[in-house]
Known about the structure:
Distance between the termini: 14 Å
Order of helices and strands: HHHH
Helix content: 55-70%
Number of helices: 4
Oligomer: single chain
Amino acid sequence: MFARGAIDGDGVKLDGVEEFAVETLERIRDAIMVKLQLGGLPVRAIARVVGIHHSNVVRRLNSIPPDVKRWYEDFEIH
Length: 78
């Protein structure tokens, strides 16, 4: 499976993944949004990458507690 909106030609591949809980997928998306914001990507571009409206990106990023946001910033995505 490859994510839409790959950046710099890199895709996201998940091997051996059957299914995730909805909450898990939302947390993964939140971590990706935090990493993209940390990298300097504009909110509208982040919205295109993760496939949600830019206002929802702003709302979700603002709702992440600071300690969780710091954890996401240090989180390694391979």
